[in-house]
Amino acid sequence: MDRVLCRALVTSIWGFAFVSPKQVFANKLTLFLLNGWAEYAVLQSALHEHWAWAWGSTMKSDLNYSHSDCFQTFPFPSHVLRSEPPHPQLASVGRSHHELRSKVMRETAEGLTALFHRLADPQNVSTAIQTLRQLQVEMDNAVTAAYGWTDLDLGHGFRETKQGVRYTISESARREVLARLLKLNHERYAEEVKQGLHEKKKKTTKGKKKAKSADKSGSMFEEDDS
């Protein structure tokens, strides 16, 4: 494997990146033995982001991304899990997003954190930043299409969150995404139980977890009583 996906364990920004496995990694990073553009698109999508914020723990205002809470419970589109040919746009837009983001960081000598804050700044209307935002929209829509959720309007825009202004999906879309992912999580878990995959783990908390409620306080959005 000539590359793996990587992200920081504790951070308020959302950023996965391909890196070479031929190096020594710090223990503040988490690695994924995945090397496909479709897999990158799913993990970098707003769908996975909001799932992680709902089910992961936090350290102050940062997300503590853990494999057990954020990754193992996340129900990938089934064809990605089976390594089947993905939705036509999924791998293509994932590659375009990652390559343009890398190009912008090289040209500006910035890291992911600085670029992330530029993307979240409504006043930043540079061509590269606007193109990256549009690619994020296309990537999120490609991921929803991979699930077959073509009826879902994600409503991208600048939103007020607990971490400040972010360019992301609407609150109503977030709730609907979490509800659908939770339903799929439960269905997958039930299938695995039927196959006997959890029989030896009944008395432990190890292994793939089943999410229990549709909307935890881990939302990145500001609380709204309306």
Structure description:
α1 (37-44) packs across α5 (88-108) and α2 packs across α8 (171-194). The chain starts with a strand and ends in a 32-residue tail after the last helix. The strands form three sheets. It has a three-stranded antiparallel β-sheet, with no helix packed on it. Strands 2-6-5 form a three-stranded antiparallel β-sheet. The chain has 226 residues and is α+β, with helices and mostly antiparallel strands. The chain has eight helices and eight strands, in the order ββββααββαααααββα. β7 (157-161) and β8 form a beta hairpin. Helix content is 45%, strand content 13%. It has helices spanning 37-44, 46-55, 67-71, 78-81, 88-108, 112-119, 127-147, 171-194; strands spanning 4-8, 10-11, 17-19, 29-32, 57-59, 62-64, 157-161, 164-168. It is globular and about 50 Å long.
Structure described in brief:
It contains eight helices and eight strands.
Notable features of this structure?
alpha+beta; 226 residues; three-stranded antiparallel β-sheet; 8 helices
